[in-house]
Each structure stands twice: as structure tokens, then as C-alpha cells.
């Protein structure tokens, strides 16, 4: 005899759920996924059997009433019926097989079916009558039925009796209940709305972090667009779950970069309602530190702040600058935005007030980069070849430096297109110029700590964009020759270069926690690179 397992009841506030019901849901899931061994093991361990059918209940009962015993038996093998009902079913099947001349098959059932062997122990005369019928040369319906108990009435009686033992539930009941629960949590705001959720751990599903930084070596994925609507900006979300692109036609899209498709779990994207700058190219973008908000700048100087979860614009500055915005940076507390522009200025805007509150003047050409420093001052870099540190409170320039300038040489303005705080040393800044050189400088004073060079001297491979890895072990520069140059920061050496096979690369960005780099170009292609 199988042991009985006594399961406790689960209580959820005023709702009481029998644990046996949970077992039945699991059994249904296993059965629907054809995990037969797991079904048998769970039934044996819990002594709980799921009396459900692979066909609709009405169809199964019609098989019994029509005497389609082969189809009936294929379903009965998966059921747990009371012994008396099983015996009546098999008695009827044996009798009808004998009447059809299938005596050997009838004998096989009498000899091997478990419930009929139990009948042999409990009611020997009834069992021997079955054996006697199986050994007769012929048997007709009149001999085993009477006017009040015909073959059809017996079949119907069996069908009704078995029907009371069957469970009728919708398919995929477990998944259906989970979906209902998650939908409710999403509506009430307790579930992340970006669709990235770990059902088992009960938390956001973020991409696996990679503890060891490695140099990329190969192309892993590709996303292709119409060149007339190519991305002008691209960056990974702080949690690493998405890649956000800003296009020359003004659209802003959130991508599942693993699947190379739009995130349609975001309701607004599923409805083709995208974040956008009307009739203006998106020229810059940045996330807030917590990843909740996305700020974007346009070619016309417009600045917008979006809530990523629902795509709503929560703040808009129609004239943040008179010309295109080249970079954006959130303050530490996410209450202010620093922007730079082709209009040669940098400005700070208050998110609460919606007003421009500070302005920094002094560059003589486009200001391409702007950052808040760790001591809350402002750092900017320009096409005039200079990097300036500004006093946040007075807006006055503290000092100016020219990366790559050597005393005694003819002064040459090297456009600074990339400037990033070194993640492991916030007092240092990584700077890349439109040349074959990149630098790590001190923020205070602009002193050169390290310099790097591709070795190109003909200007063909001058760097046009660059990015540093999250642990500051490597940095990557893309040249005008569309090659990607890979540098080891500790050794200062150029480790390798990779042909991207892209045309006119616009930018490059690094994943916040994985060995993953994205390059995007004017030919409408985003390529993802891995070790």
C-alpha cells in the first residue's frame, strides 16, 4: 500500500488554499508538457492523482456510449477510478470483446488487469463467470443482457458513473493563474512594468553581470535600419536590460538587444506609440542614475525627460539651447540636467522648476561633452580643443587645458569628442580627441596621467568616438577608417584592432556590467560585440 502524505494548507489572508490543489496544478502542467516520469513520481510521492483527460470530457463519454473501447482504454490508463467502477467498466469491455469474437484479447484483460485480479480475490464467482464467457465458443447479447438492462443502457450507466470521478479544468491552469496574479501586480504597481521579472526569485530580471572584464573580439548581433532613419544616439540602460536608440527622424526606441527586437512588453511600444522629438533628429541621450528617467536632446535645441516605464514626457524644455544639444548629464541627485550644445555653451536646467538656472560661456566652438564632477563642479570639452573646469556656484572658469598640446609645438585645435569620468578613479577623466590619441587626465589641473596612441600618423584613422569599460580596464576607440581600436589601460598598449565593416560610425557605448559593446553608424546598422 502506498504511503499517504499529509500536506498543510496554505493561507493567504482570508483565502485558504489546499496544498493538494497546488499539486494538481503542477501535475496538470507536467502532463501537458508530456513529462510522464515526473507525473508518476509526483503521484507516487503525494498519493494525489489528477483525473483529467487528454480529450474533452464529452468526447470521452461519447467513446464509452459508442463502445470505442480502444479509445476509452487509452484515456482510462491515466485515471484513478474507484475499484467497483473500474470492474464494471472492464466487465463490459470483456463481454463485448467476447461477443465480437475477440476471445484472446478478452482473456488477456481478465488475466492482467489489476482490478479484475482484485475481483478474483473478493468475488470468485463473478470472476469465474467472466472466465467462463471467455472460454465459450460463442456468446450473444441476449444471453448477457435483458430488456431492462441492454448494452446501450449499461454503457450509459458506466459513462455516468465515471463522469462523476472526472475533473474538468481549463488547460494550462497554472500558467493562467500566474498570469492573472502578475497582471494584477502590474496594474497595482508592485511589479516592474518593463517586463523583465524573475518569477522564481520575485525580482527584476536583469542581465547577468560579468565580474571579469575581457576584451571584445567578435561581432555577436546586428540590428539593421533604413539608412535614411539611422540612429544618432545609443546607450544601454543602467540595469543593462535594454538598449535605447535615438534616430535622425526623431524617434526614440527601447530594444531587447539579445533578441534584436523592440521591447513590446512596454505597452506604449506595443501600440506603436513611441517617444519622439517631432521633426527633429535626436542628438543626445542619457539615463538618470536609477534608470527610471531618460533625457534626450534634439538638433533644434529641445530637451525632453521621459519616464521609461510608460513613455510619458514628464518635462520639456523647448529652447534649452539655440542649436543642437550634444550631450546631457544628470546631477547626482537627479534634480538637475547639464547640457552642452553646438551654440558653444553649457547650461544647467532644474527638473522641478523646468527652467534654465545656470549658463557657462567661454568656449569658441561646439561644446561636445559636459559632466558633473565628484565635487559638484562642471567639466566641459569642446571642438576648440580645450577642456574647461567651471565653478558650479559662480559659473566662472577655474582652469583650461588642451589635451595633446606640447609646449613649443604649433598650436593645433584637436576636437574633443569624448569625455568620461574614469569609473575607478572619479578624480580622473578619460578624454579622446579627433586624432590618433586618447588621454587620462586629472580633473583638477588637467595634468596628463596616461596617453595612448594607435600609431596612425596620416590622419586616416583619427578617432571619432570612444568609450571606457565599467571597471576601467579597457577602452575602445573607433577611427575614421571604421576600425575599432582596443586599448589596455594598465599597460597603455594597443591590444588589437577590429574592422567593423560599417560606414561612417557615429558612436560607441559599453554595457554597464557585461563585456558588451555597441557601435552604430550612418548606414543604419547597430553591431553588438563580445569577447
CATH second-level architecture of the largest domain: 7 Propeller
Q: Any idea what the radius of gyration is?
A: 37 Å
Question: In angstroms, what separates the terminal alpha carbons?
Answer: 58 Å
For CATH, the homologous superfamily of the largest domain is named as YVTN repeat-like/Quinoprotein amine dehydrogenase
Can you put this structure into words, describing what you see?
By secondary structure, the chain is α+β, with helices and mostly antiparallel strands. It has three domains: 111 residues, no CATH class; 147 residues, Methylamine Dehydrogenase, Chain H (7 Propeller); 138 residues, 7 Propeller (Methylamine Dehydrogenase, Chain H). Strands 6, 7, 8, 9 and 10 form a five-stranded antiparallel β-sheet that branches. A four-stranded antiparallel β-sheet has the order 5-33-32-31, with no helix packed on it. Strands 11-12-13-14 form a four-stranded antiparallel β-sheet, with no helix packed on it. The longest helix is centred in the first third of the chain and has 17 residues. The two termini are 58 Å apart.
Amino acid at each position: 500500500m502506498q504511503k499517504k502524505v499529509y500536506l498543510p494548507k496554505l493561507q493567504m489572508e482570508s483565502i485558504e488554499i489546499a496544498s493538494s490543489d497546488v499539486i494538481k496544478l503542477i501535475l496538470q502542467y507536467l502532463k501537458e508538457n508530456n513529462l510522464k516520469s515526473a507525473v508518476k513520481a509526483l503521484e507516487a510521492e503525494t498519493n494525489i492523482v489528477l483525473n483529467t483527460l487528454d480529450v474533452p470530457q464529452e468526447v470521452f463519454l461519447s467513446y464509452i456510449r459508442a463502445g470505442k473501447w480502444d479509445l476509452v482504454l487509452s484515456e482510462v490508463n491515466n485515471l484513478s477510478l474507484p475499484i467497483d467502477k473500474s470492474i464494471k467498466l472492464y466487465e463490459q469491455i470483456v463481454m463485448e470483446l467476447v461477443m465480437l469474437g475477440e476471445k484472446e484479447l478478452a482473456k488477456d484483460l481478465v488475466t492482467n488487469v489489476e482490478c479484475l485480479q482484485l475481483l478474483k480475490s473478493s468475488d470468485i464467482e463473478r470472476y469465474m463467470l467472466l472466465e467462463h464467457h471467455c472460454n465459450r465458443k460463442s456468446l450473444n447479447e441476449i444471453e448477457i443482457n435483458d430488456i431492462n438492462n441492454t448494452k446501450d443502457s449499461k454503457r450509459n450507466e458506466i459513462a455516468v458513473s465515471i463522469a462523476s470521478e472526472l475533473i474538468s479544468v481549463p488547460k494550462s491552469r497554472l500558467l493562467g493563474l500566474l498570469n492573472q496574479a502578475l497582471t494584477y501586480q502590474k496594474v497595482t504597481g508592485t511589479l516592474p512594468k518593463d517586463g523583465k521579472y524573475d518569477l522564481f526569485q520575485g525580482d527584476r530580471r536583469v542581465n547577468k553581470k560579468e565580474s571579469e572584464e575581457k576584451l571584445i573580439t567578435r561581432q555577436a548581433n546586428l540590428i539593421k535600419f533604413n539608412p535614411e532613419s539611422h540612429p544618432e544616439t545609443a546607450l544601454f540602460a543602467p540595469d543593462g536590460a535594454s538598449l535605447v536608440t535615438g534616430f535622425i527622424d526623431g524617434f526614440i526606441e527601447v530594444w531587447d538587444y539579445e533578441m534584436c527586437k523592440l521591447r513590446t512588453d512596454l505597452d506604449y511600444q506595443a501600440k506603436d506609440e513611441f517617444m519622439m522629438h517631432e521633426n527633429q533628429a535626436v542628438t543626445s541621450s542619457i539615463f538618470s542614475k536609477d534608470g527610471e528617467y531618460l533625457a534626450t536632446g534634439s538638433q533644434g535645441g529641445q530637451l525632453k525627460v521621459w519616464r521609461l516605464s510608460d513613455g510619458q514626457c514628464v518635462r520639456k524644455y523647448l529652447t534649452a539651447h539655440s542649436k543642437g544639444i550634444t550631450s546631457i548629464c544628470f546631477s547626482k541627485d537627479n534634480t538637475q540636467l547639464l547640457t552642452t550644445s553646438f551654440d558653444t555653451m553649457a547650461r544647467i536646467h532644474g527638473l522641478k522648476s523646468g527652467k534654465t538656472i545656470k549658463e557657462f560661456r567661454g568656449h569658441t566652438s561646439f561644446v561636445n561633452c559636459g559632466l558633473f564632477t565628484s565635487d559638484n563642479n562642471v567639466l566641459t570639452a569642446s571642438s576648440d580643443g580645450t577642456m574647461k573646469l567651471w565653478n558650479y556656484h559662480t559659473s566662472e572658469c577655474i582652469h583650461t587645458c588642451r589635451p595633446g598640446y606640447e609646449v613649443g609645438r604649433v598650436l593645433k585645435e584637436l576636437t574633443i569628442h569624448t569625455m568620461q569620468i574614469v569609473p575607478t578613479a572619479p578624480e580622473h577623466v578619460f578624454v579622446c580627441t579627433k586624432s590618433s590619441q586618447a588621454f587620462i587626465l586629472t580633473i583638477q589641473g588637467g595634468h596628463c596621467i596616461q596617453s595612448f596612441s594607435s600609431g596612425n600618423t596620416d590622419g586616416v584613422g583619427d578617432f571619432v568616438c570612444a568609450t571606457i569599460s565599467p571597471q576601467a580596464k579597457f577602452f575602445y576607440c573607433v577611427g575614421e577608417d571604421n576600425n575599432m581600436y582596443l586599448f589596455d589601460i594598465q599597460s597603455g598598449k594597443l591590444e588589437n584592432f577590429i574592422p567593423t565593416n560599417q560606414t561612417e560610425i557615429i558612436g560607441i557605448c559599453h554595457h554597464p556590467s557585461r563585456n558588451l559593446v555597441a557601435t552604430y553608424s550612418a548606414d543604419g546598422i547597430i553591431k553588438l560585440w563580445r569577447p
